[in-house]
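Kindly go through the entry underneath: sequence plus fold tokens. Please state briefly how this chain folds according to its tokens.
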Amino acid sequence: MALGTATDAHELRFDAGRHCLDLLATTHPGERLDSVAVLRAWINGAGLVPPGTPLGHADTTWLLGFRELRARIDPLVRGALRPARTGTAYDRALARLNEIARAAPPAPRAVRAEDGTLVRRLDRPPECAALLATVARDAVDLLTDPAARACLRQCAGDNCPIVYLDTSRGRRRRWCSSEVCGNRVRVARHRRRAALAGAAHGK
């Protein structure tokens, strides 16, 4: 599996509503997890570890592990959107998800910061298997919770595969992001109206 080229960590998104869905979003519009540095940024940005947790021991095996987990979660989440979509590949993905979820996640503890406030710290540097298990368990929780599954939506934006959890009032959210896909739709509508008005005026 090619590791690709460096991606700006600022392009990572954490607005899908669940860790597992944020991981799926790292494939759009292209591969986001294309370096260990970006994976470290994703782990921190997703809040899988307390701020400031050292991740210098992460290497390319971590990158491949998170990409594999992402590939297993994808058919399961899309199957939840269209429950009739099952089969051998689905069953293999489910078995692997459950296997990954068995590892113990890192245990946080409360410690005093310099200003006296309590902050989270881990007992030891997190291992890849434990962090993968945290995301896998998040996916298990999502897929086995009927209320959460009912809130799953695929973005209505053109060619956008991102799946998100719609927790908006009235469950009327249409896009993965109003600022990204929603804005594109609004701009496209404006251009169509302008073009129609221009054509009508030209007549």
Summary: Confidence is low (pLDDT under 50) at residues 1-6.
